[in-house]
Design brief:
The chain is 0% helix and 50% strand. The chain has 80 residues and is mostly beta strands.
Length: 80
């Protein structure tokens, strides 16, 4: 996995900065819709119980959409 960082400009816009060795790539970013920019979400974790059938436990973990960063790359505008 390449090192990433979220950089905020003075006007409040977010940029995802990714390092590929000596190459640095900047992408405009928006807050993740799943975790609302926090980087963590609550999900139901199945717990097996062979006597009573099991149950679901509410657990907090890393957001799978943004990888825990809280921001995702902004969608590119399509020009026709």
């Amino acid at each position: 996995m390449m090192p990433k960082a979220i950089v905020f400009d003075r006007d409040g816009t977010a940029t995802i900065r990714t390092w590929y060795g000596a190459l640095v790539v900047n992408e405009p970013a928006i807050a993740c819709e799943k975790c609302h920019g926090t980087g963590t979400i609550e999900y139901d974790e199945p717990i097996p119980d062979y006597h009573n059938g099991g149950y679901l436990r509410c657990t907090e973990g890393e957001c799978f959409e943004c990888g825990g960063y809280g921001y995702v790359p902004a969608p590119e505008d399509e020009e026709e």
